[in-house]
Amino acid sequence: MHVFVNPTAGRGRAGRRQAHIFRILAGCGLEMEIHTSRFAGDLEAQVLQSVNAGAACIVVAGGDGSVHEAVNGILRADNSAALGVIPTGTGNDFAKACDIPLNWEHATRLLADRINASEVPRKIDVGRCNDRYFANGAGIGFDAKVTRVAQSIRLPIGDLVYLLAIFKTMIGGIVSPRMRITADDYAWNGPLTLAVISNGPWVGGMFHIAPMADNSDNILELLIVQPVTRRRVLTLLPKLMSAGHMQEPEIFHHSVTSLSIEANEPIPSQLDGEVQPLQTNFEITVLPGALDLL
Q1: Do 150 and 37 share a structural domain?
Q2: Which residue among 129, 159, 161, 196 is the one 20 to 30 A from 241 at the CA level?
C-alpha cells in the first residue's frame, strides 16, 4: 500500500497527524510505502509514477486538493489503482460526498478494515475539464476568485476561511463575464456571476451547493447564477449553506453529462478547489465509474 501525505493540507493538520496515521495503519497489519508531497503538483507526479510502476492501492491523507492530485495521477497512468482517502483537509468536500467519516482517526481505521477484508472498491464518477480531471466539482467565475483568495488566508479558522474569502473578494466588486453555455439540450448566452459543475453536493466545506448531486449516478449538476449585487450575495449565503437556494430566481439548475462553456474573456476557474490558469473555453464531461474508491 502506498500512502501519500500532503503535510500542508488543512493548514498543516495533515503533517501534525501523519505519525499517528502511520501507527494506526501499521497497527492494523498493513505494510506501507510512504510518500510526502513537497510542493504543488508533486503528489500527482508521485502517484502517477507509483501507479505506472505497479502500485494498485493508493491512500491519500489530505484534503480536496490532495484528492484532486491523486485522481489525476491515477487516471493519467497506464495502469489502474484504487484510491483510499483519509480526510485531513479544510473542506473535505469529496469525503463528505462519499460518506467517509470526517473524524480522521475513525476514517483511517475503517479504511484499514476495508483493505484487510479485501472489500470490492466502489465505482465513483469523475469529471473532466479540458485536460484535467476533477473528483468533486468545477467552478467558473466568482467562486474561483474566492478560492484563490481563500488559499492566501493563513488563519486557523477551518471552513470559515471560505466565508472570509467571499467577503474579501466582494470588496473589489462582482464581475459577471458573458458566457455561452451548451449542455445536452440546454443553452445559455449572457452574463453570469458563476457556473458550478458539481459531482458532489458540497463546496468550500460549508456550502451545500448541489444537494441533488450523487457521484455515482453518471451525471453532473450544472448550476448557473445570473449577475447579482454584493447585497444579494449576502442574502444568498445562508441559503447556500442550508441548500435553500435552489428556488431563488437568479439560480438555474440542469443535470448534464457534458457541456461546453465559452467566455468572452479569460476567466478564473477551479477544479476541486485548485485554481486553474485563466481560460476562455471549457469542455466538460462526466466519466461514469472512472475511479475505484476503497
Answers
A1: no
A2: 129
